[in-house]
Amino acid sequence: MEIKLITATPSFLKTIWIAARTCYSPLSPIELIDQEPLMDDMLRIVDHLIKQKHLSVLEHCSVTFAVKDVSRTLLAQYSRHRIGVSLSVQSQRYVSERRDAAGGLFDYVVPEAITNHQGAQSEFLQAMEQAQKSYDALLTLGIKKEDARFVLPGGAGTNFVTTLNLRSFLDVYQKRVLTPGAQWEIRAMLKRMGELLQEREPWLGTYLG
């Protein structure tokens, strides 16, 4: 798994401060832009908003990540978070998973529980090999990639770009990292996203646990 931050709202705190102050100030947001609020004042307002669950102003901040080498199983879990979450996914309809010239299989993710179990690892790799053979055979028979892909497993690798507003990111993080029970792969992805976001916005560490 590899994750990189592509872009983010330049200043989360200032953006949230302007949006929040607009709701209660006689000043317009145009006038508020030119003000230089103290860091403590911005942090106080953001903390109050989050604790009181007045979260709509957080939606004005967004972050975009590039995600590489995760499983289709993760994608199925992550795509359940639809509100405030955008996805652009590598298509199995158009990108071929045919065995490469060096004889390598399609990209796939192996759970650590299987990697650390010799018998399970052998069984898993046999299944990947059989899926590859079946996929290649279907293409040879003239079946389109969009139909041949049905033999590929949930562990097949994929890549995507995702954008979340801050309200949605905190919600997904709460459900997939801070709440026990999430599967290891999606938990690892969200934790890494949180680390990258904190590098730009260190104050978020208070809310990411």
Description:
- The chain contains 10 helices and 4 strands.
- The protein has helices at 12-24, 29-33, 39-51, 72-78, 112-115, 118-140, 145-148, 166-178, 184-200, 205-208, and strands at 2-8, 62-71, 85-89, 157-165.
- Strands 1-2-4-3 form a 4-stranded antiparallel sheet.
- Helix 1 crosses helix 3 and helix 8 packs across helix 9.
- 21% of the residues are buried.
- The model has no long low-confidence stretch (mean pLDDT 96).
How are the SSEs ordered, and which strands pair?
Elements: E1 2-8, H1 12-24, H2 29-33, H3 39-51, E2 62-71, H4 72-78, E3 85-89, H5 112-115, H6 118-140, H7 145-148, E4 157-165, H8 166-178, H9 184-200, H10 205-208
Antiparallel strand pairs: 1-2, 2-4, 3-4
CATH topology title of the largest domain: Gyrase A, domain 2
State the helicity in percent bands.
Answer: 40-55%
Low-confidence stretches: none
Q: Which percent range describes the beta-strand content? A: 5-15%
Which second-level CATH architecture of the largest domain applies? 2-Layer Sandwich
- End-to-end Cα distance, whole Å, is 22 Å
Q: Provide mean pLDDT, rounded.
A: 96
What is the strand arrangement across the widest sheet? 1-2-4-3
Assign the CATH class of the largest domain: Alpha Beta
Helix count equals 10
Main pleated-sheet profile: 4 strands, antiparallel
Number of domains: 2
